[in-house]
Amino acid sequence: MVGIIEVAQRAGVSTATVSRALNGKSHVSARARERVLKAAQELGYVASSSAYTLATGRSRNIGVVLPFIDRWFFSAVLEGIVSSLVMRGYDITLYSLSGGAGHRERVFDDLVLRKRVDGVLTVALKLSDRELEKLTALKKPIVGIGGPIPGARSLSIDDEGAGRLATQHLISLGHTEIGMIAGNPASEMDFHQPYLRKTGYQEALLDANLDFKPQWMAEADFTVAGGYHAAKQMLGDPRHNPTAIFCASDEMGFGAIQAARDLGLRVPQDISVIGLDGHPLGVFYGLSTINQKTREQGEQGANWIVDILESGDERELANIEQLDTWPIDLEVRSSTAKRAREE
């Protein structure tokens, strides 16, 4: 059986360099890593995960916990996480909490008591004090994506600022009658994204001395169908339909564009629409959006937790409260334009 010594001899490096290269350590030159990987492939060498675990007490496995898997935002974040962890030589144990509160308790007890993972990545979940205490006591670092976690590291966009920026874009185009399709109570997550995005919308109107009218506000789930139904009702009433709509998600925006077209309205000549996400189908729909670079959030979160584990500093394994604000970009496409002058 081929071992690490044979790989080192073929690559012309030390066994320590082979170990670092195959384990995804950063202290290896690109040239040396390439030689090691090529030698391992030529010799058919496969590293022993059990030997690594016995030597280090770690499994090179990250637990990823999400509330859902079958929604675009979560699948896009997960894609970024998987991509980065695989490149860094880590396995993934995936947990979905769609089964409810009892399911969540079993998941975190399983994570902690069986000690199957080296660290935990959460997506749009605020950990309870009990969950955080258990993981911290076992030196399991946590990185959250999607909102601030008291007592742990996390990265998140400024949802309120994103709602404000989307609305300010419409105001800059001369729109004064601006509606919003916000998330409904059923879509409320641990970090209250629907509420925060709506607050940003209202603050932008207030700053511009514009009226906020209840009839220009609708609620829906974060889906194409939800956005379609809400926009159809809002735009179908000629007594108070707006000239622009901010949708709290891109999928809502797709539905709003289709509803406007079904009502005989032209986008953007008769109605401007902007979303929030950076969904890849936004290019097809020509949807202006606030791009939160969802996949890249997953990549950053995964790299962050691996860097903590591989820092070589035991103090880094302790969970500390740290929030990194993730940047957002305004991407203007064909769904928004200057308000048409009234005849």
From TrEMBL:
Annotated GO MF terms: DNA-binding transcription factor activity; transcription cis-regulatory region binding
InterPro entries hit by this protein: HTH_LacI (IPR000843), LacI/GalR-like_sensor (IPR046335), Lambda_DNA-bd_dom_sf (IPR010982), Peripla_BP_I (IPR028082)
Keyword set, alphabetical order: DNA-binding, Transcription, Transcription regulation
Entry annotated with the keyword Transcription: yes
Classification via Pfam families: LacI, Peripla_BP_3
Residue ranges of every copy of the HTH lacI-type domain listed in the record: 2-56
Protein name (Swiss-Prot/TrEMBL): Unannotated protein
Organism: freshwater metagenome
